[in-house]
Amino acid sequence: MNAHASETRRSSHPHSLPHRFHDLRAGPCRPGGALPRKDCGIQAGPARPGSESPSCRGVVQRWLTAVILTIGPVWLSTHLEGYGLCGEKTRVPNVVFILTDDQRWDYMSCAGHPFLKTPNMDRIAREGARFTNMFVTTSLCSPSRASLLSGLYAHAHSVVNNFTDYPNRLPNFPRQLKAAGYETAYIGKWHMNENSDEPRPGFDYWASHKGQAQYYDTPFNINGRREVLKGYYTHRVTDLAVDWIKRPHAGPFLLMLGHKAPHTPVVPEPKYAHVYDQINICYPASAFDLEGKPDWIRPRLTTWHGIYGPLWDFRPRFPDTSAAGVKEFAAFVRAYAAVIKSVDDGLGRILRTLEETGQLDNTLVIFLADNGFFLGEHGMMDKRAMHEESIRVPLVVRYPPRIRPGTVVDRMVLNIDLAPSILDICRAEPLSGIHGRSWKRLVAGDPSGWRTSWFYEYNYEKQFPYTPNVRGVRTDDWKYVHYPHGDGGPDRHKAELYNLKSDPKELKNLIADPASAAKLAELKTELARLMQQCGAWTDRMPIDEGVKDVLPEKSIR
Ligand SMILES: [Ca+2]
Description:
The chain folds into three domains: about 5-85, no CATH class; about 95-270 and about 330-450, 3-Layer(aba) Sandwich (Alkaline Phosphatase, subunit A); about 455-550, Arylsulfatase, C-terminal domain (2-Layer Sandwich), CATH 3.30.1120. The chain is built from 15 helices and 18 strands. The chain has helices at about 5-10, 20-25, 60-70, 75-80, 120-125, 140-150, 155, 175-180, 235-245, 295-300, 325-355, 390, 420-425, 440-445, 515-535, and strands at about 95-100, 130, 135, 185-190, 205-210, 215-220, 225-230, 255-260, 365-370, 375, 380, 395-400, 405-410, 415, 455-460, 470-475, 480, 495-500. About 50% of the residues are buried. Bound molecules: calcium ion. Calcium ion binds near residues 101 and 370.
């Protein structure tokens, strides 16, 4: 894009809310109303050269300067807005929300990965914030995606498996933003309802497909027109996203981009197909340390979701419990990392496009995944269980007006928090009656009143009979997990209790440890309290039909 075009785009993009939205924020500029609203030079968004009114100079400016020097920018960013110390045209950010499918939390170099380099994910963390304790409340694609949209737990939004669409009656954050004047787009993998690629409500632009798609040549529905996008999925959806960002936008926009990667069956593009061939990869030690673990984990070892299973066709002859079988596991892990490299390249293109169009610093960029992924830990592959590798996901966020570069948030944040946080930062109407909460103040350095516990739920799937029903509670330092049968009777499987502070890899199950009995009782009480608080009580779930050594239908793999 040439400089002139770029300048034109900037000037045609005021990022101001519709007038009716300003009315919500009308009122005195500060207690006492001494500052006329129109004369305030501070905006919630980044200062723009030449945007200050000359009348702001003088007394007001001196007062503001003193406040800024005394109290500091974080306080300002979180509080002044509440007093209406904003410009006539309060800027709201664009939102670019990028979601990967099944990327575990530590597959970013900024999270300490030993060989995967993700410079663009790292850039967002470096110039914004990285959430080191971001979790999903159900580690399964569709339920987690519906939680991201709605701010609700799965039992409340009703998408409890991968075959249910997002209910049309249910509000979500894109619709709230659209109602607030945002232009909205969804590009890429939607993954709720395997059988429909139809445009979903709330999006002005739609480019998605049925089900899981393929890494190459996926048929898309683009605003009602069907077209096979030839080539590598990650790059094709990035092309669409880049083109959409470059379009003229009359106001603020929301772009949601759903990647297929690194969902199985992983297929790296040729550029990265052999990039990690020289990396030595072993089974994790916890795969061989199952003492004290629940009984259902052992029969899982040789199934579709076990380390000795077929590994999504990376292991043609299975089960293979021999030491030599690690070579296929290693090949799978290398490919899993390689497809994330392509995602990172695409992320770089999107950041560059925002930069070139002068919109980067007025865009809330959010990068995260819908669930984590076991890579052999406790002998498991895939997700669904409540161990850390499954429930912890990456989350990096960039928005300089609100987030200091290099911020690290270590409090426990959940997928149900994204919707309220985005609406809060964009000053749109909040969703009512939801379970999640906004981390706007948390990311600005104010952790007061933040949650210290949360509960997890997963329902047994007949289509993937490798994980029981799961209910559990996690605090900063402890985790209690149990596996209800589904009939209201006593549990048939052993439960798990971990001291995460002394045992972060969850190797020593303390469920039968007399010294931990008081903690166990406390956590059981807390789990019941949290479930009751969130309307998950009485708790309904399917009957656990056990771990079965069968392969899932090909169409849903
Ligand atoms: Ca997923």
